[in-house]
Structure formats: C-alpha cells, structure tokens
Amino acid sequence: MKNPTDIAIYNKTGKFNQKTEIKIIKPARAQYDNMENTFFSRRLNETNKAQKVLNIQYHLEKFKHFQKDVKKQQEHDKVHRLRKNEQDK
Q1: What does the DSSP 8-state code read for residue 26?
Q2: How far is it, in rounded angstroms, from Cα 85 to Cα 89?
Q3: pLDDT attached to residue 72
Q4: pLDDT at residue 1 greater than cutoff 60
Q5: How far apart are alpha carbons 5 and 12 in whole angstroms?
Q6: CA nearest 4: which of 23, 21, 18, 17?
Q7: Could you give the maximum distance between any two Cα atoms of the chain, in Å?
Q8: Which residues contact 15 (CB under 8 A, 6 or more apart)?
Q9: Mean of per-residue pLDDT scores for the chain
Q10: In this structure, are residues 6 and 17 in contact, taking their beta carbons and an 8 Å threshold?
Q11: Which residues, other chains included, contact 10 with Cβ-Cβ below 8 Å and sequence gap of 6+?
C-alpha cells in the first residue's frame, strides 16, 4: 500500500484497490504479418545485391577502366595540341 492512488482509494472507500486484469495481447493479424514480411524482404533485397547484378558489374568494370583511360588520353592529347599551337604562334 505504498502507492498514493491505493491510499486515496482506501481513504475514500475503506477498501483496497481491486486488481485489474492483465490486458490480453491478441495474436498478430495476417495483414500485419504480410506487410512485415514484404518490408523485410524489400530491405533484404536492397542490402544484398543479386548475383546477376554482381556479375554484370564485374564484367562492366573493365570497360569503365577503359573509358577512364580513353578520357585521360583525350585530355592529354588536347593539352598537347594546345601547347603545340601556342608554340607555333
């Protein structure tokens, strides 16, 4: 009887506070389970890439390096042509 509300009820009524029943937790609904499952699978698919995507990235990596090399060479050639034109003038 250390709870202030229990003391207040005892002073008013002369009886101890009746214990309320514990609320029953209902099992989850099927709709909630379905939504939770789809959200989980979506999150999982976002974090883990499919093997097909990984294979494509692996094969395209060589071409990305090639494109970078070509761009560097084009920039180098452009700078070289500009310097040569400046020297010729």
Answers
A1: P
A2: 6
A3: 93
A4: no
A5: 11
A6: 17
A7: 112
A8: 9
A9: 82
A10: yes
A11: 1, 16, 17
CA atoms of 25 and 40, how far apart (whole Å): 23
> Cα 23 vs. chain centroid, distance in angstroms?
34
d(CA 60, CA 38): 31
Assessment of whether the complete model's pTM goes beyond 0.70: no
Is the per-residue pLDDT at 14 higher than 80? no
Interatomic CA distance for residues 22 and 76, integer angstroms: 78
pLDDT digits (tens, 9 = 90+) for 15-56: 776 666 667 777 668 888 888 899 998 888 778 878 888 899
CA distance 54 to 60: 10
Count the neighbouring beta carbons within 10 Å of the beta carbon of residue 31: 8
Report the C-alpha dihedral over residues 61, 62, 68, 69, rounded to 10 degrees: 160
